[in-house]
Write a structure and sequence with these properties.
Length: 373
């Protein structure tokens, strides 16, 4: 005699309810565990895979004189890549170039630095164009990392006669620094086969001919922030600039598809860099309280998480579990590494972030009842 599930449940309705509850609760939990396990595994960097991807290639890293950018440049040099570093301050750039050079595997790797203000399109276009005529050539990967956070309450960041608002300066620091490098690379591609501009060398796809597209990098990698998926008090100007960047990256990823250019974005949480030290001087106490003190990564570790994510084929790369869960919640039109697990985890994520938002509200109201800032 066979076992009949329907008959078993119709004679024991309470068991059916318990079974349904177990399924309803277990599926999101399994989904969540799956999402986190897959995220953790994608952050393991296999040095051989990185070497295979970048050895003998030329990689441009912006904001590479300090912090995360410098750590990425050193990791790439260790893996056999030639690296071009862009940043403004000459002294820090010279120091970084010498540190990156001392990490190379082979003497023929080119390590060079250019002092460029990435928020100024003309300067960026000139610097990228000069690479075309240089031995290094145009880059195989572009890593748009330059940026800075200027936390504070918006009421303290309004424009004055002496200076623009933080909304403006943050857009310059975090959005234009990235969009300018992409536009400068596209301009260099167009200039590489100028006759194509009037359609003489074949049809245009995404504004470029096939000949011009040969100069496109294989990858654009953007350093955004946890603040592009989770925003709160004290980060209105910064979060807006990184959200703008995320929108740009989501769109340009699809725009570059016809020429098979890969796009990735990194959403790091706090890293122990010079930039973070500057940020701390401006940060309201309530902002620091909500952020919490935990999980501060060294830039060298954060650089490995980024490169592991790139090599392991992740589009959005997070170096913090909560940020990965926030990414799943607001993924939008980007690819999902684990579609079924992410769908299964969604009800639990809604619960987690609703609770988080209620706790944050309580923290803010309690803080300002007791203190002024
Ligand atoms: N540290 C964190 O906790 C954290 C968290 C999330 C996201 N991030 C993001 O990660 C990236 C790197 O941050 P970090 O902490 O490593 O910063 P950092 O230590 O201050 O280094 C920033 C680098 O960018 C360069 N830079 C800044 N503005 C530039 C401009 N307009 N033109 C050219 N170069 C410019 C800086 O050099 P010059 O000033 O000499 O130009 C420096 O080389 C940024 O996009 C940041 O928003 C950081």
């Amino acid at each position: 005699m066979g076992f009949n599930l329907g008959t078993a449940f119709s004679s024991h309705p309470a068991e059916l309810v318990v079974f349904a509850l177990i399924v309803v609760l277990a599926v999101p939990v399994v989904g969540l565990i799956w999402v986190l396990a897959s995220w953790y595994l994608a952050a393991r960097l296999n040095p051989a895979n990185l070497r295979e991807a970048v050895a003998g290639r030329h990689i441009l890293v912006t904001g590479a004189s300090k912090g995360l950018g410098k750590a990425i440049a050193i990791e790439l040099a260790k893996s056999g890549a030639s690296v071009t570093l862009f940043a403004r301050g000459q002294a820090a750039l010279d120091q970084a170039v010498s540190e990156v050079r001392s990490a190379v595997l082979k003497d023929e790797q080119i390590i060079q630095g250019f002092s460029v203000d990435l928020s100024d399109y003309d300067s960026v276009a000139k610097a990228v164009a000069s690479l075309r005529d240089h031995k290094s050539g145009l880059p195989y990967w572009v890593i748009a990392n330059a940026g800075a956070a200027q936390p504070g309450f918006l009421a303290d960041q309004l424009p004055t006669k002496e200076q623009p608002s933080a909304v403006q300066t943050q857009i310059n620091s975090n959005y234009y620094t990235a969009t300018n490098i992409v536009m400068a690379v596209l301009a260099a591609c167009k200039a590489s086969a100028p006759a194509a501009a009037n359609g003489e060398s074949g049809p245009l796809k995404i504004g470029l001919t096939h000949e011009q597209s040969k100069q496109l990098p294989a990858k654009f990698i953007f350093v955004s922030s946890a603040m592009s998926v989770l925003a709160f008090i004290g980060y209105s100007s910064y979060a807006a600039s990184k959200h703008a960047l995320r929108g740009f990256v989501d769109a340009i990823r699809t725009e570059l598809m016809p020429y098979s250019v890969d796009v990735h974005q990194y959403l790091p949480a706090n890293m122990a860099t010079a930039g973070f030290e500057e940020e701390e001087k401006l940060k309201p106490k309530i902002t620091a309280q909500i952020e919490g003190a935990g999980n501060m990564q060294a830039p060298e570790v954060a650089a490995k998480w980024l490169l592991a994510g790139v090599v392991n084929g992740r589009y959005c790369i997070a170096n913090d579990a909560i940020v990965e869960l926030a990414r799943v919640s607001v993924n939008g039109a980007g690819p999902r590494p684990n579609f079924l697990a992410e769908v299964a985890a969604t009800p639990l994520l809604a619960l987690i972030f609703t609770s988080w938002s209620m706790i944050m509200r309580g923290e803010i109201l309690t803080y300002f009842k007791k203190k002024s800032d």
